[in-house]
Structures are given as structure tokens and as C-alpha cells.
Write a structure and sequence with these properties.
- The protein is 47% helix and 18% strand.
- The protein has 8 helices and 7 strands.
- It has 173 residues and is α+β, with helices and mostly antiparallel strands.
- A 5-stranded mixed sheet has the order 1-2-5-4-3. A two-stranded antiparallel sheet has the order 6-7.
- It has a single domain, classed as Beta Polymerase, domain 2, CATH 3.30.460.
Length: 173
């Protein structure tokens, strides 16, 4: 099993109701992985510092910003109050999908494909554009365009995302 997915399973065991976004979500939807510095996740309810510490998670100051590390030394980025690229966290949670990751029927929650596309499109970093290309190559036929539209701000953004995904499907990186 992919090490990031193994860690996602363990984080889910530790923290309970979490939804993965970012590189883990891309892997869960496409089956293709890329290097990542951290695992990004959304939680419905804020997890206290004490609970993290009780679970042997560590807080480390890096470049003036406090980061959280799992007991297995993976950095995590937890979204518990701020929107993710202008998508409300409760919307991410209510539309998430649960994916089976092994033969033991172990599952991990992840942002739905359509929400992931909008999050990646709005982030526009090099790795996000590469992720959109992967999604277009491996998941284009699975995209629910009506659902995707509900994540966009307006018709203009929806058309731009549609054109971007078609471009990446026709021009794989």
C-alpha cells in the first residue's frame, strides 16, 4: 500500500471523522501518487492540542509557523475552521466519498472528485496543475459535471474549469 495511504488510515484511526484533501485525495481518485510534504485533512470538529498530544502528535515550529506531525513523523495540515480555497468545510464533508483502500475493507474519506478539481484549479500551483492533468487522464469520464458546477462561483469559472480539464485530457503531461 502507498505509504501516504497507510498514514491516512492510521490518522483516521487516531482522529476519527476526517476527510483527506490534497495529494492523498488525488491518489485515492487516480491511483497515481506524487511526492508531498504533508497530508491535508478536513475535520468537522476542532481537535484540541491536548488530544493531539495525548495521541503522541507533535507540534514543531518551522519558519515561524507551528506545524503538526503524526507519531510516525508525517506533517499534517488540518483544516477545521477556514474554508479550503473558498469551499466551505461542511460542503467538503457533506459531499465526500469513502474509498476502500485494501482487501480488509479499510476505508478512508476523501473530498469528492468534483470538489477536488475546483480546489486544485483555484490553488493554481505547479503541483495542482499537475494533479489536474492526472485527474483528467484517469478520471475524466467519472466527473459529475452538474455536481462540479455547484462548487464553482459562477458560469465563467465553471467554463474555465471545463475547458482546462478538456485541455489536460487531450494534452497529457
Amino acid at each position: 500500500m502507498n505509504p501516504y495511504i497507510e498514514e491516512a488510515v492510521l490518522i483516521t484511526r487516531d482522529l476519527g471523522d476526517v476527510t483527506f484533501v490534497g495529494a492523498v485525495a488525488v491518489f485515492l481518485h487516480t491511483g497515481k501518487s506524487r511526492e508531498s510534504k504533508d497530508l491535508d485533512l478536513v475535520v468537522a470538529e476542532q481537535i484540541t492540542r491536548k488530544r493531539f498530544l495525548d495521541l503522541k502528535y507533535r507540534f514543531i515550529n518551522e519558519n515561524g509557523k507551528e506545524r503538526i506531525y503524526t507519531p510516525r513523523n508525517y506533517k499534517i495540515d488540518v483544516y477545521d475552521s477556514r474554508d479550503l480555497n473558498e469551499i466551505p468545510l461542511d460542503r467538503i464533508i457533506e459531499t465526500r466519498v469513502t474509498i476502500t483502500v485494501n482487501k480488509k475493507n479499510t476505508t478512508v474519506n476523501t473530498i469528492c472528485l468534483e470538489g477536488l478539481i475546483v480546489v486544485k484549479y483555484r490553488a493554481k500551483r505547479d503541483q495542482d496543475l499537475a494533479d489536474l492533468s492526472l485527474i483528467a487522464m484517469y478520471c475524466f469520464k467519472k466527473i459529475d459535471w452538474k455536481l462540479l458546477r455547484t462548487f464553482t462561483k459562477d458560469d465563467v469559472e465553471f467554463r474555465q474549469i471545463t475547458e482546462t480539464m478538456k485541455f489536460y485530457k487531450e494534452n497529457p503531461r
